[in-house]
Amino acid sequence: MIMELNNTAKHANSHLAIMGKPGTGKTQFVLKILTDIRQQSNYQTNFIYFDYKGDVVDNERFLETAKVHPFRLLQGGESLPINPFVLPAYDEQTVNVSAREKAESFASINSKLGVVQKGALTEAIRAAYAQRADSAAPYPDFHDVYRMVAAMYEADNKKDDSLIEVLRDLSDFDLFWRHGSDVAPIDRLSNRTLLIDVHAMPVLKELVAYLVIERLYKEMALLPDSPVRDGRRTIRSILVIDEAHNYLSQRNIFLQRIIREGRSKGIVVFFASQSPNDYQQKFFNFQELLEFAFIFQCEGVSAASVQDILGCSNKTAKDLQTEIARLEPWQVVARSPEKTEEFVKFTAEAFYKNY
Fold it and tell me: With contact defined as beta carbons under 8 Å apart, do 12 and 259 qualify?
């Protein structure tokens, strides 16, 4: 099988999903595809990979062959040289909008954050920007924001709550860049290939991913359209979300925007999850925006999700339900590249066998 990921004549977008039970080969298949892309693009196409289980970060062969920079969060004091508060401009309106968006982001991840806490966080972020306004780096870090909220709570004689808890963790764990760091924060994410290992984190996995995705979207929105040559659109960067079922149920507006708007900018999303059912979310139709889908062995798959993912008939989807549950490791059912067929079945290649 030949996958023409960025052929604009054949495909509406380049977003991809790989689904299957643990141990069926999907992670090795993802690594194979990513390494192929890196080498075939002469390392010009980058990716940001969220490693949820920690089984990729120790694959030294992959890190070396794909030229990946790993960041092992909460392991040996390593932090991401990314500041989620960096903005394209620091006028009052831009700061106010960003502060509101950050508060909404926190609330979408943590259901315990109510209206009052969102208001407090928004106010604290604004105050933190104001405090840094006249400095060479006019953006706060999470230590600044935590101090602002803690001071507000103390002044109002309020007890610590879930907002204080989250900000304290972000501050204490040093997950993101902070003022006084020996390195400057990353200026652009779309031209870096990073593996962000979050498996050692007891909390905040989804929030870290959300904040990085938000930063990538903000950067993407300012990029010129990606060039198209001979019907092939240049892919700048791939956002790879492992164990995506942990993220798909969140109302991540920035992930949704990347999926909707990323095509023209050359920003692509790859998902790896456990079942086609994961993509059936009431608030956002992930299925219709996934141009490429590969289903490894899964159990309990609904016919409706198979039909949506593969674009096949209802009868074919019902017939495939049993077959998908009985697939051998490395066997894959996928949408057919030929319009005359409803699906295709093949054996996936592993990274370790090719590299």
Answer: no
Helices of type H across 223-271: 253-265
Rounded to whole angstroms, how far apart are CA atoms 266 and 223? 9
216 and 320 both lie in a single domain: yes
Is the residue at 330 inside a domain? Answer: yes
CB 189 within 8 Å of CB 48 = yes
* Alpha helix ranges (H) inside the chain: 26-40, 60-65, 92-109, 115-132, 142-155, 162-172, 205-222, 253-265, 303-310, 314-325, 351-354
Mean pLDDT of 144-168: 93
CA distance 320 to 309: 12
The whole-number pLDDT of residue 223 equals: 95
30 within 8 A of 270, measured Cβ to Cβ: yes
In a domain, 226, yes or no: yes
How far is the C-alpha of 233 from the C-alpha of 240, rounded, in Å?
19
Per the structure, the count of domains in the chain is 2
pTM above threshold 0.90: yes
Amino acid sitting at position 174: D
Give yes or no for residue 339 having a pLDDT over 80: no
Q: How far apart are CA 141 and CA 79, in angstroms?
A: 13
324 and 296 both lie in a single domain: yes
Place of tokens 């407090």: 120
Token output for 108: 């979408």
Assigned token pair, 215: 């930063």
One domain for residues 213 and 138: no
For the record, the structure tokens of 114 come out as: 């109510």
Q: What are the beta bridge partners of residue 16?
A: 270, 292
Angle (CA) 74 77 83, round 5°: 85
H-run or E-run covering 71:
strand 69-72
Token pair 């879930």 in the structure block, residue: 162
Q: What is the pLDDT of residues 3-48, one digit of tens each?
A: 899 999 989 899 999 999 999 999 999 999 999 999 999 999 999 9
Instruction: Identify whether residues 113 and 207 lie together within a single domain.
Output: no
**Residue ranges making up the domain that contains 160:** 92-172
Averaged pLDDT score across all residues of the chain: 92
Q: What are phi and psi of 94, to 5 degrees?
A: -60, -45
